[in-house]
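Q: What would this chain look like folded?
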Amino acid sequence: MATFVHETDVSTLNPPEAADPGEPARAPERPWPAGDDTPPPADVRAERDAAVHLLLRMTTVALVRIVSLLVVDLGALTAAAGLTLLVTGSFGMGALTNLAGLGAVTAYGVVLAIAANGAYGPGDPRRNPARLTRGVLMGVGASFLLTRLVGGTPAPVAEFALYGIFSVLLVVAGRLATDAVTRLVSPPFMRRHVLLIGDEDSAESVLAHFNGSVSTRVRVAGRLVHSLHDDPRADGDLGDLKAFLRDRSVDVVVVANVLPESALREVVHTAFRRGVHVELVPTVVRDSEWVIQPQVFFGCPVLEVRPSKLGVPQLALKRAFDLLFATTVTLLLLPLLLLIALAIRLDSHGPIIFRQVRAGLGGRPFTILKFRTMVFDADDYKETYSHLNESDIRVFKIPRDPRVTRVGRVLRALSLDELPQLLNIIRGEMSFVGPRPFVIEDLQLYEPHHFERLSVLPGLTGLWQVSGRSEIKDWESVVRFDQEYIRMWSLLLDFRIMLKTLPALARRHGAF
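A: My prediction, written as C-alpha cells:
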C-alpha cells in the first residue's frame, strides 16, 4: 500500500544528521537562489522563456546590424574604387589590370580587417573613426602586400595609396550617415529598453550621454535605488527589481551608482536569470575629462584612464578632410578673394593681408592670415583703446572698434576676413573646426586646465563660435566649449559645426 506524504512532511521522513553542539545551526538548503519566493517550476519556465525571447531578439538585431554595415561598407569601397579609377585616368597614371579580381581581394581584406578591429559589433566601437581608419588601412595594406608578393598582378603604390585614402573617407562617412539615418527611422524592435539603478544625479548623467549619442534607440523603463528612504522620487528600490524585470520590457540594466558587493551580486544574478544584460558605469570618472579604456593589466581587468585628446588615426582623418575640402573651397572662392583684395586696396592704405603670430598645436607659434580690416597700424593703438574692451584680456573684443575700416566692418560682419585662413588649413597649421587660436603672449596667463585646448589644431570655426561668437566674453566659457569639442570629437560633429556656422554668419550675432 502506497503512502502519500505532503510536501511539508518531507523533512520529517529524512531527518538531518545531528549537528555538532559547537557548530551553529544551518538553514536548510534551497534548490533556487535566496530571495526568490515564487514557486520554482513556474519561475524557471518564465525565466527560460524570457531568456529565449531576448536571445532571439538580440540575434535578429545583430544580423540586421552586420548585414546593413556590410552593405554600406561594400558600397563605400566600390565608390572608392570608382574614384580611384577616375583620378588615375584623369592624370594618366598606370592602369590596373585584372581590376575585378583585385577589387574583390581588397574588399574582402578590408572587411576582415574592420571586423578584426571590432567595428561590426554593438555599441560605439562600430562608429569609432579610429577603429574604422585602422581597419581600412590594415586591409588595403595587406591586400597590397598579397598582390605584390603572391599574385602576378602588379600593385602600383600610388593607386593603392589613393584607394586607401578614398576608402577611409567614404567608409567613415558611410558609417556616420548610417548612424544618423538609424536615429531617425529606428524601428521599435531595434530599441533597447533600459532600467537605471542609481540616484537621480547619476541617472541624469547617464541619460545625458544617451541623449548625445543614441537617444532614439534607448527607452528608459524606470529607475531603482538602493533604498527609497534616500530617494523617494525613484520608481522603486532593489527589492522591486524582480518585479520590474518580470512586468516590464527590459533589455539592459545600467548600474549608475556604486552598490555594496552583496547588492550588486543580487542585481547581476536576478538580471541574468531573466536573460537581461548588465552594464556598470564607472562612476568615479563618469563625467571627467579623461578617456576611459577597459584593459587587462597583468591578468587583472582594469579601467585605463588617459588624457583626453585625439589620437593619430583621428588626426589623420581630420587632416585628410581638411586638405581636400580647403583646396576645393579655395579654388571655388578665388574670384571672391580677388574682389575682396581689390576693395581693401582701394579703401585704405596698408597691406591686404594681416599677419599675426598665434599659438597653434601644442602652443607652437604660427602666422595666421586674415584680410586686413583695421588701419595698418592698429596694434599701436591697442593700449589706447584697451579700456573699451568688454571681454577677458585673452578675448580682446571692442564693439564698434574705431580702428576698423569701412570695408573691414563689412568683412567682419560676414566673417569674410577669415577666408585667407584657408591657406593656413592647406599648410597644416589650422583645421576647419577647432579651438580658436589666440596670441602667443596669452599662454603665460593659462592655468593648467586651459592647455587642453592646445592638444588639437586650432580652427577656422568651432563650438564656441557657433554658440555665440563674440557674445561669449567669459574666458572660462570659451575653454569649456573647446574642451567639450575635444572630448566629443567626431567627423559628424565637425560637419554639424560647419553647417551651423552658415546660419550664425547670416544672423551676424556677435560679429563686430
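Confidence is low (pLDDT under 50) at residues 1-42.
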